[in-house]
Amino acid sequence: MEISLAAEKIAHIGSFPITNAMLTSWIGGVILITFAIVATRRMKLIPSGIQNVFEFAIEALYNTANGVLDDEKATKKYFPLVATLFLFIIFNNWLGLVPGVGTIGVHELVHGKEIIVPLFRSGNADLNMTLALAITTVLSIQIFGIAAIGVFKYGKKFLNFSNPINFVVGILELIGEISRIISFSFRLFGNVFAGEVLLTVIAFIVPFIAPLPFYGLELFVGFIQALVFTMLTLVFIKSAITDHEVHEEATAH
Amino acid sequence: MDAESMSSIAAAAAIAIGAIGPALAIGMIGGKGLEAIGRNPEAAGKIQGPMILAIAFAEAISIYALVIALIIKFV
Question: Which fold has domain B3-74?
């Protein structure tokens, strides 16, 4: 039973290594794009078939985003990023449960021992992928905040010179912002990788029947982690685009 | 005690102790949430949303502990 924390490299393009998690996430991306093209080809006003499924998913996501952001215009602006995050993460998580992922591999000689290097691995079980998602999200939140309320008002949240206490609070906010990158990436990576290790260990101990409830758990966890990532992004966007001074004036009365 | 067995004990202790806090936290959050739903069943939808969010925040801490345990064991 071989468990590797880092995603294994399976190929090289020139000097750029391709890991098995990268390959699986590419396959997930291709599947998503194919679904999207098939669903929106020859769109009908009254949907049926695969267009219906997609409209259901997109409408559910849109209502969730609207519920958190509370502002139709803002939802329309930020919905593409949020919906993409959700669909991408959930597809990657669930693709990692398909039979063959983690088991189909090539024999390789590593440190004198012959082990199997799997060809596929859940996309988010690679810290690089979740780190990329986290950095993209946190950067986008900053850009959305600056675009919504302007550079000076947004900067005042972090660099507040009115008062020594406010200054320290601002610095802490800045550190909190950066720690969000770590928290986003490790939450997603930890959940997905731990799920993989759990399934490997259970299948190693009792290969038949016993892994079934754990596959159920992993389906649920995959969905919840995508939902949590999306909801947290929405909540942070909401807090970034709100003008806090107006809010303070409202509560002062 | 050689290094190999010490690292195994360290990995087990990391996740065992690191899961106590989040377990208590999630229990408390769930309890308060259910209490709130019991007092006002109509607001169940509005309570569920922030509750799930708070549970995810608390769970993340236990995931950090798990990642440290995995690093100790496998790296």
Answer: F1FO ATP Synthase (1.20.20)
Q: How confident is the model over A121-134, as pLDDT tens digits?
A: 999 999 999 999 99
**Which amino acid is present at A245?**
E
- pTM of the predicted structure, to 2 decimals: 0.87
- B34-37: Cβ within 8 A, 24+ apart: none
Task: Quote the ipTM score.
Answer: 0.81
Question: Considering CB atoms only, which of A4, A190, A235 is closest to B74?
Answer: A4
pLDDT tens digits, A1-23: 678 888 888 888 888 999 999 99
Q: List the domain boundaries for chain B.
A: 3-74
Type of residue at B74: F
Contacts of residue B63 in chain A, CB cutoff 8 Å?
186-187, 190-191, 194
**Closest residue on chain A to B65 (Cα):** A190
